[in-house]
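As promised in the previous annual report, we have extended the structural survey to additional targets. Below is the entry for J domain-containing protein.
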Amino acid sequence: MSLETAMVKANAQDVHYQAFMSELLALAEFEAETLPQPAGEAAVARLHRLGWQYLNLNPYYVLLLEPGCSADEARTAYRRMSLQVHPDKHGGDPRAGAAFEMVKKAYDKMDSEDKLDLCNRICQGARKRVDEQIKAAKKALRKDGKDEVVPEDEPRVYRRTVRQFVCKMFVEFEQRRAQLEARDANERKRKTEEAALEAEESKLASKEAAAWEKSRQKRVAGWRAWTSGSGRGLKRPPAVKAEGTAERDKEFEARGVEWRRDWR
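The corresponding structure token record, generated without further manual editing, is:
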């Protein structure tokens, strides 16, 4: 997806992202072979451009570094930019203070070999995406019988496009990281709530078991009293005597004779 297409599909509710895409497409210095090194007020203003909330997520842009830079180059760029935007050099300007924090935050992303390697791999991914788009564009031209010529064939346009996509890739990386952190936070919250619920259920079960055990002796004594008939107001019902079968049959027969006599 080209940057122009991304601009069209930008979230209408996120004005910062829209401003970032607009500013990104207008960065003329991205065409230069070597990025210009502003000083004074320009060094501070550069970090407060439209869409800076997204634009400054790219540490290469903030520190004016090229992809593939070494750890020493990153350290040198950090020291240089820190001095240029330090609030003491700008009369305590709050924008300079914010810019100083942005520079520090950018260097925090590449202040170790592992972090720097990750940043360089993000840049490689951006270059790969640009190359794939160029290849697809030339394939479409070839299919239509046209010359396979695209604007990115010019070195300055290619440099600008790669740098633009590096910025966009850092935004996508940060968005994905934030999503994963939010998901992990929700998962931790869910597990904490489940653990608390299980602990409460276990506590309640323990109380019920303790109460049941505590009343066991009383229940056993009551049962024994009832079975022996010595309990207060607890009388066993009298045993039912089973009548003999022969006597019962004689009684029924006699009564049957009387009933038949009465029916007449």
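The chain has eleven helices and no strands. The CA atoms of residues 82 and 193 lie 45 Å apart. These points will be discussed at the next consortium meeting with the crystallography subgroup.
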